Amino acid sequence: MSDTTLKRTPLYEAHKRLGARMVPYAGFEMPVQYSGIIDEHNATRASAGIFDVSHMAQFRVSGRDARPFLQEMLSNDIARIDDFGAAQYTLMLNDEGGILDDLIVYNTGFEYLIIANAANHEKDFNWLMAHKPENVELVDESERTALIALQGPKSTHIIDELTADDYALPERFHINDALIDNTIPVLVARTGYTGEDGVEIVARAQDAEALWNVLLSFPEVTPVGLGARDTLRLEQGYPLYGDDMDVTRNPLEAKLGWVCPTQEEDYVGGQAVKKAREDGVEQALAHIRVDGGIPRNGQQVLVQGQPVGVVGSGSHSPTFGFGMASAYLPVEYTDPGTKVQVEIRRKLVEGVVVKPPFSL
């Protein structure tokens, strides 16, 4: 895709003014870093980082049969978020149990809000449209909305400062309405992709820059690009669609069986997941600590000199100072403590399988 065909979020000009280095990502021109990946990563862990995630797709689902429709289309039990404002992480599968996308679904009251991965925007929408009944309305809100994440130990304090005295932040994995700085109507979700406490804020596209600027006006807040977003989520062991899972993998291989309740198997792909549970899987996603090198996507993983897998996600951990990776390995090599090697620049570097999140 050439630069002339890349999309831009409503915050593109704001990123340019901040001196961000822009790169193509999921069809968008996005900031990969501002001051530097390590600085931005550490600022998020210590204080608060602000992220433009407006490239993510946003769908609204409403109508009399919206709930049973989503129960059929998504792996998790939608009944668990019947309470107003509740949210859940879930998967959308094909008939064979392959992962089409991982999503967050919010119950906003009279409808459901779905946040999907940018790279799967069109595919997801078309899949849902092809399956929805006539009395369900599915609307793509992605062009009309912006999504800004504020993450880190000081992030909720900042939201408290910018909202009315009687406003209460939603609980973890919940969403509610708020008015930011007395002027900007938003939805505030207590969710994130960093492992830190924080929020993801849905706003109208025309309000995106005003919201960004008022959040960035706090000295505790640092703008963060895709580079640090990746190291933050990888330290926690959070998967990235395309690197850690795709349509060729089922939820059990991806270690996401927990979002496929055994008592609810009538969703699309549910019977395939049930069969995988009964038969077992040959490979599963593992996380690897690597000392002495930085693993990258596509590098070979070996056990006793024999190739057994390929790195999906790989990077350096700014928090802990070692390399970290994910890879699909034969299940017999996925137990924590298993010794492996990663081929980095024609050199075999020692690694060990760990249970995420990464730690010293």
Notes on the structure:
With 360 residues, the protein is an alpha+beta fold. The protein is 20% helix and 34% strand. The chain has eight helices and 19 strands. It has a six-stranded mixed β-sheet. β15 and β16 (306-316) form a beta hairpin. α2 crosses α7. The longest helix has 11 residues, at 121-131. The protein is globular and about 60 Å long. It starts with 11 loop residues before the first helix and ends in a 6-residue tail after the last strand.
Q: Order of strands across the biggest sheet?
A: 10-11-12-9-3-13
Q: For the terminal residues, how far apart are their CA atoms?
A: 40 Å
Helix content: 10-25%
Profile the largest sheet. Answer: 6 strands, mixed
Low-confidence stretches are: none
Strand content: 25-35%
> How large is the radius of gyration?
21 Å
Class inferred from helices and paired strands:
alpha+beta
Instruction: Give the total of beta strands.
Output: 19
Number of helical stretches of at least 4 residues: 8
Mean pLDDT: 97
Give me the strand/helix succession: HEEHEEHEEEHEEHEEEHEHHEEEEEE
| Mass-distribution shape | globular
Secondary structure layout plus pairing:
Layout: H1 12-17, E1 21-25, E2 28-33, H2 37-46, E3 48-52, E4 57-62, H3 66-73, E5 87-93, E6 99-107, E7 111-116, H4 121-131, E8 137-140, E9 145-151, H5 155-162, E10 175-180, E11 184-189, E12 198-204, H6 208-216, E13 221-223, H7 226-236, H8 270-279, E14 283-290, E15 300-303, E16 306-316, E17 323-330, E18 339-344, E19 347-354
Helix pairs in contact: 2-7
